[in-house]
């Protein structure tokens, strides 16, 4: 399967995917990496491997819809089977979802539907929950709201601060992303009534 990965930051999730794609039998290759800013550190990880990169900035367009259309076109050029938001800090629009709906995945650092948004580990601590984690889901028009593909829980420890909890979640998040994307690439998936099944659908 062909993967296009979208990032905004350091790209630790991207790094995990790139490493997995080097394993024989993984079943996927990263064919391009896109970002919404030139400062996304993960772009270098792709460039080092000779993987094409692109940057599509909201600020370069008069309208947000034009940005969305440009991003859609850019990603389409690489004919992905899956598009993965790995710390991509932009909500895509209608054009993107029309093209990639059902195969655009996002990884989020909470057990959704708890704690959507940008501060999930801090929100989890502030709420006093004892279990946190990571969610891989199919992006829809909502924010952190689409059909859930997989979740991994991690404990919240008494001594945690935002940094230690964020890091524990990220470790689980990377492992989940690599495992589940590989299985989706090898076996396919179906989304029905908001429920995602990897492999053949159950009758
Ligand atoms: C991930 O934890 C994601 O859930 C959050 O941002 C992080 C991305 O990290 N929204 P990286 O750029 O993959 O290191």
Automatic annotation (TrEMBL):
InterPro entries: Formyl_transf_N, Formyl_transf_N_sf, GART, GART_AS. The keyword Ribosomal protein does not apply. This is Phosphoribosylglycinamide formyltransferase. The record marks 144 as: Raises pKa of active site His. The active site is at residue 108. Belongs to the GART family. It catalyses: N(1)-(5-phospho-beta-D-ribosyl)glycinamide + (6R)-10-formyltetrahydrofolate = N(2)-formyl-N(1)-(5-phospho-beta-D-ribosyl)glycinamide + (6S)-5,6,7,8-tetrahydrofolate + H(+). (6R)-10-formyltetrahydrofolate binds at residues 64, 89-92, 106. Keywords: Purine biosynthesis, Transferase. GO terms for biological process: 'de novo' IMP biosynthetic process. HAMAP family: PurN (MF_01930). N(1)-(5-phospho-beta-D-ribosyl)glycinamide binds at residues 11-13. Pathway: Purine metabolism; IMP biosynthesis via de novo pathway; N(2)-formyl-N(1)-(5-phospho-D-ribosyl)glycinamide from N(1)-(5-phospho-D-ribosyl)glycinamide (10-formyl THF route): step 1/1. GO terms for molecular function: phosphoribosylglycinamide formyltransferase activity. Catalyzes the transfer of a formyl group from 10-formyltetrahydrofolate to 5-phospho-ribosyl-glycinamide (GAR), producing 5-phospho-ribosyl-N-formylglycinamide (FGAR) and tetrahydrofolate. NCBIfam families: PurN. Its EC number is 2.1.2.2. SUPFAM superfamilies: Formyltransferase. Pfam families: Formyl_trans_N. It is an enzyme of class 2 (transferase). One of its GO terms (cellular component) is cytosol. Residues 2-181 form the Formyl transferase N-terminal domain. PROSITE patterns: GART. The keyword Transferase applies.
